[in-house]
Amino acid sequence: MSHVVSPIREKLVTGGKSYSDVTHDICKQVEGEPTKEWKWAFGISSIVFIYGAYCLFYTWWQGIGVWGLNKTVGWAWDITNFVWWVGIGHAGTLISAVLLLFRQKWRTSINRSAEAMTIFAVLCAASFILAHMGRPWLAHWALPLPNAFGSLWVNFNSPLVWDVFAISTYLSVSLLFWYMGLVPDLASIRDRATTKGRKFWYGLFSLGWTGSSKTWARYEYMSLILAGISTPLVLSVHTIVSMDFATSVIPGWHTTIFPPYFVAGAIFSGFAMVQTLLLITRVVFKLEDYITIEHIEMMNIVITVTGSIVGIAYLTEFFIAWYSGVEYESYAFINRATGPYWWAYWMMMTCNVISPQLFWSKAIRTNLMVSFILSIVVNVGMWFERFVIIVTSLHRDYLPSSWAMFSPTMYDIGDYIFSFGLFFTLFFLFAKYLPVVNMAEVKAVMKGVSSNFPEKKKATKKTEE
Amino acid sequence: MSSTTNYILGVYDDEDEVLHAVSEVKSKGIKIEDVFTPFPIHGLDRAVGHERTRLPIAAFMFGVLGLACTLSLISYTMVFDWPMIIGGKDFFALPNWIPVSFEGTVLFTAFGLVITFCISNNLYPGNQPDLLDIRITDDKFVMAINVDKNKKVSADDIKKALKDSGAIEVNVK
């Protein structure tokens, strides 16, 4: 009645769970004492965060002179890290919005943590933009606010201003989408609460949810519309990020292929990051019945597809550099592959183009350990992609006398470490205090797809139809 | 849902059963107040008799408003208040404004939609609802019948109709 599911489909929820089991399994993380593993993980990420926060504070205090930038390489790790984190963030919206529009039911048990990851990744990206401004306390100058200079407004023709709007809209809309998805589940925790504190806090944020059919009907429309507007939004964000480069006149950046190529790369790296986190979460929180091999395999298939698109983009860039007949453009690409940064280029090629092709084998894409390692390899590769695009295109410019190399200082590295500390600290807090799986959505797809759903109910379903 | 209202509640434990029960109970001339469920069930709101939501229209209006606001802001600042020649382009450089106006449209739509949704469903921080059954947010489906609005049918008949339609429990609240 509610959905027709082909019998050849794999089960999305295993272990013969009932609705009540779902509530219990997911809520018990929130309600119980933190486990030893969680305390260790949280402790380590907090230490990393504190060390990184010191480095970031020093950068803010002293200015970006503490980085290894020179007058030839004016953008390096800061923008590399920014683009890398924004790209990672894209997977969350893709899973929750695009897969919702395509009615992909397997997304239900992973969308919550993927969306949380999006928000934290975008926050990490924002930390680099703020630091990169040099005077972060003047960050509001990027907004069109009336001021005492005339008013002198921001330039709406500039891709950097587009970026400010894109990233801030993306962050706030993702946060809204994620929070509205949480409301019914927060109400479940509220109604199970045994302590006063939990009753108060989860009661406060569940907004008085009752589960009435009228509310649910409106809720579904709202989710659909939010998904509908988030889809072009997520594509616009990385398109605009790529325009920061593509609208310039630097050989190696001035390429029309950038928007689709960046979006594919973003999905590629984001899915890899979701894969890394899921493989850890499912073991630490014992969610093997909800995040099954089927989910892992689906993710690996998306990684292969987007990885192949990225591979084609690399080859196309190279071809066009030659075909255009522009010698500066050709030089930029030959220098990437054979110049002093050849190792970064081939690192990128190996990790991004060759390694995901291993997933053509079913044995490999259903192997948890290999999936875990490859998901990290992909993100290493994607970091190098941005490094190659940014640093290799800049370090040998039109004037050979000003050619230079870039070497990071401890503050370049420390600020990058900060983003990891921030990301994992927030993720572990989320995993402890909020339901990591969207209970309402999982329950809604269970009947058709759960293995051994109580037989009695299947029987009644048949007789009534 | 004030405490003076008299409700008869049918508790079900299956989504398809409750969906069928709705039409069965309605066919006996009983008016259903609402059905409360742990997750959305397609077609349940229409079966109960709720009208189709107008949220999409609201979302569209907010989108148009967002587009209008962003375009007005950009054209005011870039054309009227402080025009500047940038890269030899027109002051009114519409193609360059597409990204920001798009983001503005999305931002207004998303926030307008969610705020409208919360207001129309009476959702706000600190609202402590008087739930008819605590298990609604876990695994039970509850059909609520307002006794005062069903003067023609006796309470016993309502209870019987609920039981017949597959309710595992019938409670009064």
UniProtKB/TrEMBL annotation, chain A:
Under the heading Pfam families, the entry gives: NrfD (PF03916)
| Keywords from the UniProt entry | Cell membrane, Membrane, Transmembrane, Transmembrane helix
Subcellular locations according to the entry: Cell membrane
- Which residue spans traverse the membrane? 40-62, 82-102, 114-134, 160-182, 221-241, 261-280, 301-323, 343-360, 372-396, 416-437
Membrane topology per the record? Multi-pass membrane protein
Instruction: State the similarity comment.
Output: Belongs to the NrfD family.
Enumerate the PANTHER family for this protein. POLYSULPHIDE REDUCTASE NRFD, PTHR43044
Protein name per the record = Hydrogenase
TrEMBL record, chain B:
| TM region(s), chain numbering | 55-77, 97-119
* PANTHER family, sorted: LIPOPROTEIN-RELATED (PTHR40394), QUINOL:CYTOCHROME C OXIDOREDUCTASE MEMBRANE PROTEIN (PTHR40394:SF2)
Record's keyword terms, sorted: Membrane, Transmembrane, Transmembrane helix
What protein am I looking at?
A: DUF3341 domain-containing protein
Its domain of life reads: Bacteria
Q: Which Pfam families does the annotation name?
A: ActD
Say which species the protein is native to.
Aquirufa beregesia
